[in-house]
Amino acid sequence: MADTPRFGVRFKTVVAARARQAARKAGEMVQRKGALELTAVSGEPGVPIYRRAVELAALAHQVIERADAERFFLRDQLDRKSSIIPQLIAQGLAIADMAARRQLFRQARHALTDCATIFDLLVERGSAPIDLVDAARAAAQPLLDELCALTVEPPRQW
Predict the structure, then answer these.
(1) Is residue 114 within 8 Å of 77, Cβ to Cβ?
(2) Do residues 66 and 141 both lie within one domain?
(3) In this structure, are residues 63 and 79 in contact, taking their beta carbons and an 8 Å threshold?
(4) How far is CA 19 from the centre of its chain?
(5) Is 116 helix (H, G, I), strand (E, B) or coil?
(6) Radius of gyration of the chain (CA)
(7) For residue range 22-59, what is the model confidence (pLDDT) as tens digits?
(8) What angle, 0 to 180 degrees and rounded to 10, lies between the N-to-C axes of helices 72-93 and 47-66?
(9) Which of 27, 93, 106, 108 has the greatest number of CB atoms lying within 10 Å of its CB?
(10) How far is 40 from 49, CA to CA, in rounded Å?
(11) Within 10 Å of residue 93's Cβ, how many Cβ atoms?
């Protein structure tokens, strides 16, 4: 009978170790799930927002290619900001922690707002074709609306 409590403690230790190992593996799988895996899964929540972000980056690249060469700083900033938006969204979709996910989506929203400002500056200075900028703005607005909705904190319970 003296062995029974030890067996119970050993059993609980083994079960706890297996649970920790399973949780660690699940966390690693969630972190490793990249943008390619996310786009391959049909019906995955969030994939459309990722695709829209990639489309916006492509439109921004067209604006960059046609913008005046003398506006290098603006072109460089637009390239950086538009490229990071899909990256941040993919990272957000790959993690399970909702607070961290909202933070990444907030960063994507800020980068998108910066892109919109750069579009305005390029048009105001006459440095980019208005039709390309309008197409990029049209792609940016629904993406911005969706990111705003995804970054709202849930109501606190009293």
Answers:
(1) yes
(2) yes
(3) no
(4) 30
(5) helix
(6) 23
(7) 556 655 554 454 444 444 443 455 589 999 999 999 99
(8) 170
(9) 108
(10) 14
(11) 23
pTM: 0.68
Burial class (CB in 10 A: 0-12, 13-18, 19+), 136: buried
CA atoms within 13 A of residue 65's CA, in its CB half-sphere = 7
The domain in which residue 1 lies consists of 1-32
Q: pLDDT tens digits for 101-127?
A: 999 999 999 999 999 999 999 889 888
Instruction: Judge contact between 118 and 77, C-beta under 8 A.
Output: yes
Residues 87 and 51 in one domain: yes
Are 28 and 83 part of one and the same domain? no
Q: What are phi and psi of 106, to 5 degrees?
A: -65, -40
Question: Both tokens of residue 30?
Answer: 């969630």
Question: Six-digit token pair at 14?
Answer: 């083994």
Q: Using an 8 Å Cβ cutoff, are 56 and 135 in contact? A: no
